[in-house]
Amino acid sequence: TMSSLTSNLSCLNSVKRTTQTNSRPNVPSRAIVSASFDRSGSMCSMGAAPKEALLNFINDRKDDATKNNSEITVTLTTFDDRVEHLFENEPIENITLTEQEAVHFLEPRGTTRLIATAIEEVARLRKAFATLKTNNPNITVTALYLLFTDGFDNESHPLTARDLNAAIRAAEDDGITCIFAGADQDAISNGAQYGFSPNNSL
Predict the structure, then answer these.
(1) For residues 100-127, b (16+ Cβ closer than 10 Å) or e, as one string?
(2) Which of 18, 26, 28, 119 has the maximal Cβ count within 10 Å?
(3) Can you say whether the dihedral through the CA atoms of 125, 127, 128, 129 is positive or negative?
(4) What's the pTM?
(5) Cβ of 150: how many Cβ atoms within 10 Å?
């Protein structure tokens, strides 16, 4: 259900905490996060859940940064048949988002360019992650990609689920954690066709 999805998303940790405690690690870490949120017309049936998921996602990343002494940058994308980048590699501490802004950014419209958008954003994240690791050889560097959607693609031809599957698997091979938040659908089944592991499908 959407309530359980929002709850699970709120509990998601993109940066691992130190074993058995929430104490700040001695060595600072860096994390790069990219999230793609579906705002296509069919999302209107989800009510307030997308807004709550987005706000929880931002707030949880802020908690991660504080608890793990981690520098986190966030790229946040919304998509229907158009793609909009709300934040690009923005330090999490600089991001403020009101409920009204979240509702506006996710106002349902258009059709669903899911596969093409996710492939593009994953490619950007892989490149940024590689650069981050190269520039920070002596600290822990992690990366997370989140795809939040309620349905199936209808605007990415000729790209197919197989193409996204390959992109997600390549990202995971790079060490990027990829999360499929499948609103109002069989997340494990649909996530699997796109390459997401069952454990990372909410």
Answers:
(1) eebeebbebeeebbbbbbbbbbbebbbe
(2) 119
(3) positive
(4) 0.86
(5) 23
